[in-house]
Every structure is written in C-alpha cells, then in structure tokens.
Design goal:
Layout (H helix, E strand, L loop, with lengths): L4 H8 L13 H11 L1 H11 L2 H23 L4 H6 L2 H12 L6 H17 L11 H12 L1 H4 L16 H10 L4 H9 L12 H4 L1 H6 L16 H19 L6 H20 L7 H6 L3 H8 L10 H21 L6 H18 L16
Length: about 375
Amino acid sequence: MQITVQSAKQNLGIEAAPHLHAPMTTQKIMLYVLIALIPAYGTVIYFFGFALIWQFLLCALTAYILELICAALRSKNLKLAAKDLSGIVTAAILALTIPPLLPWHLSIAATFFAIVIVKQVFGGLGMNIFNPAMAGFIFLVISAPGVFYSTWLTPAPAALKVATIDKTAGVIFMGDNPKVIYDEIVSLKENPDVLTGATFLESIKTARKAGTVNEIKTTNFTSDDYFAYLCLAIAITVGGLFLIIFKIILFQMPLAFLLTVGSLGGLWHFLDPTASISALEHLLFGGTMLGAFFIITDPVTNCGTSKGRILFAILSGCLLILIRINGSYSDSVAFAVMLSNAAAPLIDVLTRRRPFGIGYRKGGLD
C-alpha cells in the first residue's frame, strides 16, 4: 500500500534533528526566557513609560500570526506552531530593543523581517543562521534611521505617570506629536541634562567622530538621567542569573562577553580617552547587558562546541567595541552579534572535538 509523503510526515513526525526526548522542551525553554525578561520589562516601564507594552503587543501578535501562516504554507502541524513560543521570545527581545515611540507600521515591518525573512525562509526554528531579533533591529536602523533615532525616550523616575497607555498609544498608532511626552518626562527631573529623542551613544556620536569624547561630562549613574540604565542592567542580570540557575544558558558566555567588552573598552579609554567612553559606560549603555544574557546565548545562532561558544562571546565583544568606537552605528550589539553568527560555522570547525582514536600516541592514552 502506497503511503503519501504527507501521511508519512504525520505518522513518522519527520523533523530536523535532534530527535531525543528530554523534560526540558523547547516550549519550556522559551517560557523561562519570557519569565527572565519580566524584571527588565518592569524596569523599562517604570523609567520609560508604557510604550513598551504597545511595542510588545504589536511585535508578539504579528509574530504569532506569521508563525501560523508560515506553518500552514509549509504543511506543518498548526497546533504545534500555536504552542511554539519562540516567535513570542523574538518579539519580546525585539520590542525591548526598538525605540519606545516607534510608529506601529515599522514595528510590524521589523517583526515580519525577523520572523519570515530571517527565520522561516531558512527552515524555521533551529535552522536560521542569524538572530531574528537582531536582524529586525538592523532592518530598522538601515531602512528608517531618521524615525528610528528620533523616537527614543530619555528615562526618568516614575515616567509611567506621564508616558501613559493613552498618550503613548496616540503617538505610536495615531501619529501624535511626541514632544508633549518628552517635555513631561523632562519635568520629572531635578537637573535634566540629556536630550530626548536619542540614546546616549547616539548623542555623543559627533564628539566621538571629532575626538572630543573626553570633554563630555562624566556619567553619574546615580542621577535622574542615568539611574535607569544602572537599574536596567541589574534587572537584566537578575533575569540572566535565573536562566543560568535553571541551566537554560551557560554562565561562561555572558562572563566572557562582559569581560571582553569591559577590558577592551577600558583599555581603549585609557589609551585614547578622546575616542572611547569608559568601561562602565560601555557595559551599561546600549544593549550590552541584554546581549550578554539574552542574545549571544541563543543556542541556534551561536556555536555548538564549548570552546566555540567562548570564542563566539569574545568575538562578539571585540566587534561591539570596534564598531561602537570606529563605526557609524552607535549601539553596535546587533551588528556584532550578526557578524559573529556568520562566523559561527567556521568557529565550530576550528574547535571541533577530536574523533576518538585519531591523533593519539601509540601505546599511550594521551
């Protein structure tokens, strides 16, 4: 009796390797990642307002619908696709990295690029070469830099009181002028000295290119302007430790990445303070902490060997500093990660395990 290809797929469950069963399923791993992001989300909402909620809902709903559509087009099990949380994780990380007041259509476009072009075109979960969230971020940076760099919010204590659900929805969905939110957030500070609409790294780009970084006022992370970045770094670290405790990620990768960024950034600042900010600023500004615990640790797009993962983390840290100091893009985490993603297969080859019985001395065990 002939068995069609479709029925064979249904009966045999043909999927990409590995086929081993384990208590820690992909769905549980994704759920733990979402739980680990809760402290970061709470911190951003407190210091930047409720715009993050809208961005997450936009990205998550778009990702969920696209995952189902792609599953149907590829004749996959829709029930499994509906339970798969990987698209929601991508949306959660993407929403956390894009500007809070980004117009709704650009958030949807970035999610489409991340899910369809970067993930599903390559075969879906486990097959993509590049990190989808970082690809969506870069898509926005390259395609809409004007809007991208003008829709950030400067943080302030209890900013959620002025950047409310209604006001942020008006800016994101109706195109209202964000200046009202900017002004109200600034009014919450005692001595505001940060421009709204751009990140700190973007605001010092001119000084970086002119070689006058050393003339910028030293960052005080206990002030109203910068305390949010310290709290956010702590919140992300708490989430990262949660993942380490439950063995979702290995501590070696974040440790190697942060040591690389801190030491290289600090050395560069010591040798040439006119070009580089301090080591602490490199660690706390931009997406460095998020990259350490939630982005470079993506098991699909980093390396498959233990040594390879360490080299991957070190390479990502070096590229981050090089691009951030010498490149045209201020927050270079996404570019550093995607370049490292491209190098991951080569790193795997260079760090592959020695086959048993090959390369051993005759008459010895070592």
